[in-house]
Specification:
14 helices, 312 residues, mainly alpha, globular, single chain
Length: 312
Amino acid sequence: MNLFQVVAGFARKDFDKKSMVYVLLMAALCIFLNYHFHLYQQFIRTSYEAGHSLWVLPLYYFSFYMLGAIPVLVFRKRTDLLANPIFYLKSAFYIGIYGMTIGYYGYLDWPLEKLGCTSLETHFLYRCIYFSKSTIGPLLFLLLAKFTFDRYLSNFYGIGRSSAYIGRYLLLVACILPFVAAASFMPSFQVMYPVFKPWNYEPLFGLPDCGKVLLFDSCYSLHYVGVELAMRGALVIGMASLMGKDAVLPMAFMYCTLHFGKPLVETITSLFGGYILGALAYETKHIWGGILLHLGVAFGIDTAGILQHYLH
């Protein structure tokens, strides 16, 4: 069975016209309102500057999750879950620790200069912390959950020994990379990528360019691990004990809203991409595929950007 068959098989089991039409229409409405009135920039991005993002982001994420989850469960006649306080507590726990981690910017006040770091090195370390915090921050809380109310899980929210379909995921990444290579010749691509431009960080702890890239990419990769751990690991595999397959669609809706503030096309495709990755995580009981896809494409894009810089 290939990945397409796995997703198609899940979609057949999960198909419910009313709930799926609702999610599509509500996502379309939210996307229109956000991008037309610039709501994310006005209310969410300003919370970073005001120092309120530590509580604003968990509330923002949880509100959108419930906006997706409650009607979906009603349409699917799963109102028993809506009367179960564990449903609210467990989802709020997962979303809360992720939102607080993303919304934490207290590290910007850490006096790294007192450790002998230059302003350039301090900026570099802040960027490394920004990308790695989405995994490191929730880790202790998820470990506590795993050994208490989630002790029935066979692995750590999709991270374990299971490697089903890994070869097919790698093949999919290989199929995507030629399109990345073609896009790398576009001027807009070359302006945006790579995410980390080592030539702008001279000098940096006495490291050569390859050392800077390796250090940064180690932290950068943790960002994608954190996203998969929260979205597909906690909100699909973790919530499946309560919701079963119905955990996937609300997660995909919330995952779409996480992309507000990013290019419109990326936000729209994230709804479908989130559903596909959620279906694969639910069926295979691991998140390695999502991690591989994210890392493979991200590092492919950055490698293409670096090559374009040095070729020019």
